[in-house]
Structure formats: structure tokens, C-alpha cells
Amino acid sequence: MKLEVEEYQLSDDGVIPNSNLPVLVYRQVCTHENNSDWFESTFVKNGWTNNWRDTILSYDHFHSTTHEVLGVGQGAVRLRLGGRAGITVSVAAGDVIVLPAGVGHCSLPGQSGYEIVGGYPDGRSWDLLTGTEEERRTALSQIKAVPVPVTDPIDGVQGTLRNYWG
């Protein structure tokens, strides 16, 4: 499968660390009747587990212990990536976002009627950080220790992700 990929590089803003690895957005990966089921089974098949279905938190947060994949199962949503000085990305059913550890993300106000399927490489445990001064030192060292996944959440081993993240 040849994926249409957008890549976004987000720098540390002093609050949200972001990452040296780019955020990847895969457009219209699937158009199944139930995208959420397809995303979850595809993520699991490719080793991105510890899955969930919900919306995205409406405040800036990031994970220092794992990368994250977000598949839009239903509806559409506008997300802010990278913290207050970051970018806005609109995604719709069938799109996927792969977030490196440390990248801030949140849904913008007024977003509803959508469903996200999330997952983590090798089912890694996630933390929930907001960029407080107390979190920063530990978060920076933890982010550096998160390995690049062996598989892409959509196309598996030797997949698209490795072309962008090495």
C-alpha cells in the first residue's frame, strides 16, 4: 500500500518538548464501513496495541514513555500539535496520525462527533504529561530513551514509518 504522507517537524517550545522525529499524517488510509474496527485490528496485527477508542483530550498533553498512533474511525476533528505555538491539523475518518514521544497534542474547542482509535508500539505504557516545570527533566530523558518502532502501525515491518524515522 502506498500511503499519502504529510510530515510536520515540531520544535521544543520550552513547555512541550516535541521531538526530533516528525509527526506523520497518513491520509485516507481506509474507507471501510467501520473504520474503527479496521484500525484496531490493523494496529494489533502490526504490534501497536494497548488500544483504546475515545476522543482526544482538549488540553495540551504529551507522552514521554511511548510513541502513539491515532486513527480517525468516525467523523472529523481539528487538532493542535506541538503546544500553544504549534500547528492545527484537520483529520477525518480514514486518516492516521503517528505522534513521536514528546509531541504535544489536543483537540480544539467545540470538537465532537468523532472517534479515535489509539495504540502504542509493542503495547507500551503511556504517561500523561502537560509540560510542567517539575515534569521536564524526567520527561526529556525518557523521550530520548523511547526506541523507534520496528513496525509501522498500518503497513507493518519495513513500512512507511521507517522511511521517515530511520
TrEMBL record:
InterPro entries: RmlC-like_jellyroll, RmlC_Cupin_sf, UCP019307_cupin, YjiB-like. This is Cupin.
